[in-house]
């Protein structure tokens, strides 16, 4: 009988986290962005059938990156939970907070149980309220940590780079067209080379509080997306210069690695923070650090 | 009820399955399904409120569904402003006659059923598919129908394929029948259908079609004690739902009031309503 190697709990958790992060980092990014009349979701997704963004309930939507089968299963569970609650109580009693909690418990339990593989997903639960101040965006990671995000949230492969770009250009109360242009530009700025994404590479949906129907979720079709995007031009030159400047300035190891691992080929190990010994298991949830996680 | 003690999503929620909310309830929470309850013995029909008359009629590009506002319990008027016409989803309407409690529950379950499918599949059911789901729902209620708690719905919707409205009627065993042009269910339906026969034309405009539906409800109330006519004192008027390519829309209160007032004024001249010619 062989004696199993001793593995410290810290090491075990870190390995599981690294595993999950690597899986997520392979995916393309998804963005949720608060605009004046609701919340906009933009995901880079070449498949017209396999959605990353979906409706959960009247005022709630779901967005995810990572392994499709895993987050699809979570999405279906969320729809079942919401419909069940709405049917047995009332439509108003279905809240984003309850759903985000259920997801957090589920992800957390799976992450820390030895028997199951951690889910390689990151998800957003967004809920619109009566005004911008009442909107909620919850961001959940593979280990069940949950963060209440204001303004915008980015998940997926080059989340940090994309979030940085949005952070530089985002203003509160932005219009839908402005938010859409910003999100599409940001998704294109996920590496050293700036890409111009076309409508067929994007999946776009909104939770629009001005909709008269009870259900506020609406997908924006490729045609209307092309229409909205054609009214504004991509801020290529200025941004390209900008990002050049940033990468030139950035002499810290962090920013160089950000710039370096943008390419497709190296995406596999890209945005994963180098596993320093004292690296936290999950990304920090620091409210003072105003960059979304 | 919806999550286990740890707050984690219950296993049933994460188990792959079909897209039907009713099937999910049957497996996970069967007590929430209307047909799964045991009742006492005997005929209960005069002990609970019953909804009465519903009419539906198509017009070019859509369909109208209207219902009176009365619920009766034996000889008692249980409610004067009950609503029996509802949107089933964005492109269809459903209404019920019969046991009001079960009818309302059935409508709620049907609405969730359609929405649930739409969210899980990312596509809406065909109009026939929706009509068949409603059949399955009624079939589950059969034991109660045998005790006098019948629910007979009427379903109508806009069919994208034929660019027009369609009407489906049901029997208490879940039988589904497509009706052409117009139909009526409930205690006053015989009188309403008689009126519709004389007033209906295929080329009615949306607002004329609404007037015809209202006239037929007034005729039903004229001869059936369980059907409520327009309540001119309290200004309680029929609920009128319209489904077209633009979706379901409930006619606003003041629009219905104007149509009712016009019909009412005409009946001051001729109490039986508009007369149809003998040969034209």
Automatic annotation (TrEMBL), chain A:
Main location (coarse class): cytoplasm
Alphabetically ordered keywords of this record: Cytoplasm, Hydrolase, Proteasome
Pfam families, per the entry: Proteasome
Regulation affecting activity: The formation of the proteasomal ATPase ARC-20S proteasome complex, likely via the docking of the C-termini of ARC into the intersubunit pockets in the alpha-rings, may trigger opening of the gate for substrate entry. Interconversion between the open-gate and close-gate conformations leads to a dynamic regulation of the 20S proteasome proteolysis activity.
InterPro entries reported for this sequence: Ntn_hydrolases_N, Proteasome_alpha, Proteasome_alpha-type, Proteasome_asu_bac, Proteasome_sua/b
Gene Ontology MF terms in the entry: threonine-type endopeptidase activity
Domain of life according to the entry: Bacteria
Location relative to the cell: Cytoplasm
Annotated spans, Disordered: 231-293
GO biological process: modification-dependent protein catabolic process; proteasomal protein catabolic process
GO cellular component: cytoplasm; proteasome core complex, alpha-subunit complex
Feature: compositional bias, Low complexity: 254-280
Pathway, per record: Protein degradation; proteasomal Pup-dependent pathway
UniProt-listed NCBIfam families: 20S_bact_alpha
Oligomeric form and interacting partners: The 20S proteasome core is composed of 14 alpha and 14 beta subunits that assemble into four stacked heptameric rings, resulting in a barrel-shaped structure. The two inner rings, each composed of seven catalytic beta subunits, are sandwiched by two outer rings, each composed of seven alpha subunits. The catalytic chamber with the active sites is on the inside of the barrel. Has a gated structure, the ends of the cylinder being occluded by the N-termini of the alpha-subunits. Is capped by the proteasome-associated ATPase, ARC.
HAMAP family: Proteasome_A_B (MF_00289_B)
Biological function: Component of the proteasome core, a large protease complex with broad specificity involved in protein degradation.
Family: Belongs to the peptidase T1A family.
Protein name: Proteasome subunit alpha
Protein source organism: Kribbella sindirgiensis
Native organism taxonomy: Bacteria, Bacillati, Actinomycetota, Actinomycetes, Propionibacteriales
From TrEMBL, chain B:
Pathway(s) it belongs to: Protein degradation; proteasomal Pup-dependent pathway
Top enzyme class: hydrolase
InterPro entries, alphabetized: Ntn_hydrolases_N, Pept_T1A_subB, Proteasome_sua/b, Proteasome_suB-type, PSB_actinobac
Subcellular localization: Cytoplasm
Catalytic residues (UniProt): 52 (nucleophile)
CDD domains: proteasome_protease_HslV
Propeptide residues according to the Swiss-Prot or TrEMBL record: 1-51
Enzyme Commission number(s) of this protein: 3.4.25.1
Keyword Hydrolase: yes
Domain of life: Bacteria
Cellular component aspect of the GO annotation: cytoplasm; proteasome core complex, beta-subunit complex
Keyword Glycosyltransferase in annotation: no
Similarity comment: family membership: Belongs to the peptidase T1B family.
Protein name: Proteasome subunit beta
Gene name per UniProt: prcB
């Amino acid at each position: 009988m062989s004696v199993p190697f001793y593995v410290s709990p810290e090491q075990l958790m870190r390995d599981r986290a690294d595993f999950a992060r690597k899986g997520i980092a392979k995916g393309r990014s998804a963005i949720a962005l608060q605009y004046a009349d609701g919340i906009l979701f933009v995901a880079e997704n070449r498949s017209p059938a396999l959605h990353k963004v979906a409706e959960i309930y009247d005022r709630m939507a779901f967005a995810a990156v990572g392994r499709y089968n895993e987050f699809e299963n979570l999405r279906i569970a969320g729809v079942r939970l919401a419909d069940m609650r709405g049917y047995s109580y009332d439509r108003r009693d279905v809240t984003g907070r309850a759903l985000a909690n259920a997801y957090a418990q589920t992800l957390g339990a799976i992450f820390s149980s030895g028997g199951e593989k951690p889910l390689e997903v990151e998800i957003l639960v967004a809920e619109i309220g009566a005004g911008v101040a009442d909107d909620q965006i919850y961001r959940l990671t593979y280990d069940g940590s949950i963060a209440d995000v204001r303004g915008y949230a980015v998940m997926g492969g080059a989340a940090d780079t994309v979030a940085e770009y949005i952070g530089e250009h985002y203003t509160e109360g932005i219009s839908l067209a402005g938010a859409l242009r910003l999100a599409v530009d940001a998704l294109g700025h996920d590496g050293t080379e700036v890409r111009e994404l076309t409508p067929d590479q994007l999946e776009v949906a909104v939770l629009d509080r001005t909709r008269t129907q009870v259900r506020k979720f609406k997908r924006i079709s490729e045609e209307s997306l092309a229409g909205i995007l054609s009214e504004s031009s991509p801020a290529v030159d200025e941004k390209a210069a900008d990002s050049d400047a940033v990468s030139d300035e950035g002499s810290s190891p962090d920013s160089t690695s950000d710039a370096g691992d943008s390419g497709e080929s190296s995406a596999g190990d890209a945005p994963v923070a180098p596993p320093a010994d004292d690296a936290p298991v999950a990304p920090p949830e620091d409210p003072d650090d105003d960059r979304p996680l | 009820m919806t999550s286990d003690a740890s707050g984690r999503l219950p296993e049933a929620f994460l188990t792959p399955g079909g897209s039907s909310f009713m099937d999910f309830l049957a497996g996970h929470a069967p007590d929430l399904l209307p047909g799964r309850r045991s009742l006492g013995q005997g005929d209960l029909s005069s002990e609970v409120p019953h909804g009465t008359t519903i009419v539906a009629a198509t017009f070019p590009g859509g369909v109208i569904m209207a219902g009176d506002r009365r619920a009766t319990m034996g000889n008692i008027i249980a409610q004067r402003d009950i609503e029996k016409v509802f949107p089933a989803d964005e492109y269809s309407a459903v209404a019920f006659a019969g046991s009001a409690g079960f009818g309302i529950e059935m409508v709620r379950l049907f609405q969730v059923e359609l929405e649930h499918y739409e969210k899980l599949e990312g596509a809406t059911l065909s109009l026939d598919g929706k009509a068949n789901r409603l059949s399955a729902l009624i079939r589950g209620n059969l034991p109660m129908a045998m005790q006098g708690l019948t629910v007979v719905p009427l379903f109508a919707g806009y069919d994208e394929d034929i660019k027009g409205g369609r009407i489906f009627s049901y029997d208490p065993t879940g039988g589904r029948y497509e009706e052409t042009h117009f139909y009526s269910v409930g205690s006053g339906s015989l009188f309403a259908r008689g009126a519709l026969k004389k007033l209906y034309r295929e080329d009615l405009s949306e607002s004329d079609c609404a007037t015809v539906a209202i006239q037929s409800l007034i005729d039903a109330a004229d001869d059936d004690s369980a059907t409520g006519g327009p309540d001119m004192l309290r200004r309680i008027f029929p609920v009128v739902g319209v489904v077209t390519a633009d979706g379901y829309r409930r006619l606003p209160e003041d629009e219905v009031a104007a149509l009712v007032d016009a019909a009412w004024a005409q009946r001051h001249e001729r109490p039986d309503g508009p007369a149809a010619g003998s040969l034209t």
